[in-house]
Design goal:
With about 290 residues, the protein is α/β, with parallel strands linked by helices. The chain contains ten helices and seven strands. The chain has one domain: Rossmann fold, CATH 3.40.50.720. Helix 7 links the parallel strand 5 (about 160-170) and strand 6 (about 210-215). The protein binds nicotinamide-adenine-dinucleotide.
């Protein structure tokens, strides 16, 4: 039986979520996506117009397909949490059942169960502001979108997961080391995500017999990273200073994700795995 994966946080073919989808599709998994509501129309029309066909190509020549594409907004757990201005926003109009609980219900109705849950999303409205200048609202928004969203997903999708299943998310080493420019509480959000990965590994491990890990990735010029502004400098810094001198390809993260959610990693849980060409082990720039 092919494994069933649900991936939250794909809205184009540039980010880690897409690369994880590809690595899992190569391994024979059936993929469903949760796409951020405001990005859904563009994603779907680009997919239909063939804009992603080149990046959909699998090694056997076929094109990666998605069983289901759901609208999703991971900062809301149920409709009761959705404020009026979002509910009536024109970018949300015409979509329904996009809160985390509702998406989980739709996935259950369509697929019954899943084996793999991927969290590849983050948002920090004040990411360009230093922590010292971050507002309470901005800080809490970063935590809500980038950290609590994982807890919410494990809460709601855990009951749908088959024993032996696995959860994976994406983090960044700004959780442990000072990365000037990664502001707005995003460094705090990644620290929380890594700690929550350990606690969820225990709690969801006992409750659902699933594993929970996170990948601490090196810099990639995704859409989210472009919004931070300093990604080209980070890519250059990483190239110049890492033990392995090459640019990080998204698929390298996708492949490690595929390993971590596979039976090859059946005893690995609660772990933060670096996939960063080794930059994290350097003490000072050479
Ligand atoms: P990306 O833009 O491809 O992915 C981020 C996705 O999150 C987007 O598809 C966006 O639509 C979605 N999103 C934002 N808010 C959402 C919400 N409320 N509900 C649902 N979806 C929402 O960029 P990426 O860089 O591949 O990011 C994926 C993950 O990788 C993030 O957790 C990011 O922090 C992490 N990461 C990125 C880098 C990097 O350099 N790009 C490095 C380390 C970790």
């Amino acid at each position: 039986r092919g494994k069933k994966a649900f991936i939250a946080g794909v809205a184009d073919d540039q980010g880690f979520g897409w690369a994880i989808a590809k690595a899992l599709a190569e391994a024979g998994a059936e993929i469903s996506l949760g796409v951020w509501v405001p990005a859904l129309n563009i994603f779907k029309s680009s997919l239909e117009r063939g804009k992603f066909d080149e990046s959909r190509k699998l090694s056997d020549g076929s094109l990666m397909t998605f069983s289901h594409i759901y609208p999703m907004d991971a900062v809301f757990d149920t409709m009761a949490d959705v404020p009026e201005e979002v509910a009536t926003n024109k970018r949300y109009a015409g979509n329904k059942n996009w809160t985390v609980a509702e998406v989980a219900e739709s996935v259950k109705a369509d697929s019954g169960s899943i084996d793999i849950l991927v969290h590849s999303l983050a948002n920090g409205p004040e990411v360009v502001k230093p922590l010292l200048e971050t507002s309470r609202k901005g800080y809490l928004a970063a935590m809500s979108a980038s950290s609590y969203s994982l807890i919410s997903m494990v809460q709601r999708f855990g009951p749908l997961m088959n024993e032996g299943g696995a959860v994976i998310s994406l983090t960044y080493n700004a959780s442990n080391r000072i990365i000037p420019g990664y502001g707005g509480g995003m460094s705090s959000a990644k620290a929380a995500l890594e700690s929550d990965t350990r606690v969820l590994a225990y709690e969801a491990g006992r409750k659902y017999k699933v594993r929970v890990n996170t990948i601490s990735a090196g810099p990639l010029g995704s859409r989210a990273a472009r919004a931070i502004g300093f990604i080209d400098d980070m890519i250059r810094y990483s190239y110049e200073n890492s033990p392995v001198q090459k640019e990080l390809a998204a698929i390298e993260v996708g492949n490690v994700a595929a390993f971590l959610v596979s039976p090859l990693a059946s005893a690995v849980t609660g772990h933060t795995m670096f996939v960063d060409n080794g930059l994290n082990v350097m003490g000072i720039a050479p």
